[in-house]
């Protein structure tokens, strides 16, 4: 039954794209072949205590060798689009030149997708910074924005004509804040001052890259992917509501303001007691016209004046949680989309570039019964439909993820895939949710 979806929904039209998403480091493996250089995630994985069970990206889903089978899998589900990322350390040598073997891999992959009519959404940076660039200061250094622009220039010239939509960055908030302030992702620094500098250099890299992509690949769309998160006040006091508002400013408006208004919200820098080194002209460079905004949505935060709570600490009765401990909160997606449309009237069309949940799935008699994931998709698609009805232009939805993969500091324990991966045999088994998505997509008018 599809009664959960309003009959008027644009989601039933074939020009609303349905896809699945992955990222290079999470699926590829083969980290030491064909001239790939080490990334900050290889280093982080090799640092004892950082990743659950000492898991690494050395093999992952072996997608580097099994890409053709994975393309067939996407085709067999009848999906319109596939969102993937390029590994910068595969593509650029230590002296800043193109690595032909790295580009050959992505050319084969993108061509196979194109031949099957699957639209290619390609993210240029999904967290795997070359370690040699981190050694020179990483995103804390302004130089990295220029190294990134050089990489983007080479990559988009090499791959021009093979991509429908480029994204400069995946979730700059995670790179800057989790990587440089919270320390729970590579490179694992724990200083908000560093994170605020990193955030500005990510934005600068974006601004430098967009005109290069447009020049090199004029037929493709250009955008960026942000993870947006609504914050709910832990109590209804004025102080807690103020703290929740500031949390949203720090998580969402930090980058939306720079990208769409050409300004940073000073309240965030005041809160953190740090201001990035902004060179005159930087914000003009950053504020580039965008063809789309990618929105990744997972859950909300609970915030009190006493500090940002891990909502896991919140005593919330009757809250449904995923294997990550994340609350299932579809209403937050509608709220988030409607809020950014109100706050940013020049908001470009939105793609939901990631949405999904982890569950502890197992194959039993050849089947994976992930009914909770089906319910999760249904409720979040209905939330997208509500946002569309409220006037937000949403053009597509990508499930995270095509298959179970390396869930960063959680390693392989957390399973986000619509296809199960057996890490001993590398067998992919579509879960019940994959067939649900296939059938939903097939029945569109
Ligand atoms: C995203 N948070 O990361 C990433 O883009 C994916 O690579 C990842 O696998 C997926 O979400 C699932 O985690 C996030 O704590 C990591 O709010 C953390 C958060 C949000 C997104």
UniProtKB/TrEMBL annotation:
Active site residues according to the UniProt entry: 171, 354
Pfam families: Glyco_hydro_1
Alphabetized UniProt keyword annotations: Carbohydrate metabolism, Cellulose degradation, Glycosidase, Hydrolase, Polysaccharide degradation
Superkingdom, natural source: Bacteria
Coiled coil (UniProt feature): none
GO molecular function annotation: beta-glucosidase activity
EC number: 3.2.1.21
A Gene Ontology BP annotation from the UniProt entry: cellulose catabolic process
Swiss-Prot/TrEMBL catalytic activity: Hydrolysis of terminal, non-reducing beta-D-glucosyl residues with release of beta-D-glucose
InterPro entries: GH, GH_1_N_CS, Glyco_hydro_1, Glyco_hydro_1_AS, Glyco_hydro_1_beta-glucosidase
EC category: hydrolase
Residue positions binding substrate: 26, 126, 170, 298, 400, 407-408
Signal peptide start and end residues: none
The UniProt record lists the keyword Hydrolase: yes
Similarity comment: Belongs to the glycosyl hydrolase 1 family.
Name of the protein described by the UniProt record: Beta-glucosidase
The organism of origin for this protein: Neorhizobium lilium
